[in-house]
Amino acid sequence: MRDSIDERLKLDQNAQVNEIEIQKIKANPYQPRKTFDQARLKDLAESIQLHGILQPIVLRKTIAGYNIVVGERRYRASKIAGLTHIPAIIKELTDEDMMELAVIENLQREDLNAIEEAESYKKLMEDLKLTQQDIATRLSKSRPYIANMLRLLQLPKEVTGMVKDGKLSGAHGRTLLAIKDKQKVKKIAHQASRESWSVRSLEQYVNTCNDGKTKQSTSSQPASKPKFIQQQERQLKEQYGANVMISTKHKKGQITFEFKSEAEFKRLIHQLNEKYKEE
Asked: Is 128 strand, coil or helix?
């Protein structure tokens, strides 16, 4: 039976730590994360300048030098800090090990955006000939979770780029999958990003589109909403300082206040209570 990824990476407490020239080190070719937060790298670089590198990175020896197995942020920050050598432990690993470790390390750190995560799963499937269930088992995920993440790659490249850039979340992307017209998907995606729609707002808009109740509109509200309801939403937003959505169906309605923190929630409750006392 093949050893677990943790066993293959497990470091002996007595493992030799080597000082390796940074110029001989290359990034893991299977690294799924393509973007690194430069501000956080600079913070780490300042910490390294003050305290040094507290934990060695892990490398694999290659013909041309070394590939990073674990510790690419430390490596990048060390270059910013001006280090010429970095402490490292050398491990013997296969290409398969390198690929799995690169994905797992980033997933455990929650550093990947939704598209990078989905692309990682796709690469594991294609390069290692794994099924969705194989990946789910190895990464302790459910198969439906893997399948739903992979579906994000069906979005137009323009939209996946917005998710990568943080203009939309993975949840926004999954909601947009319900729209089959690719051009409409791009238009709605840009509108949702430009007007900072919540996932819930986007879901309601997509549902009305699919139900045939409205057509694509350049306004921030679905076109099917009566103007007086849109006006009430704007007034409530101004009054309470929060996004408000009013929905009606079968002669019933619902008013939704959106809050993004416990403090904002408490503020809204206080305002609503005060308004009730006044009346």
From this structure: helix
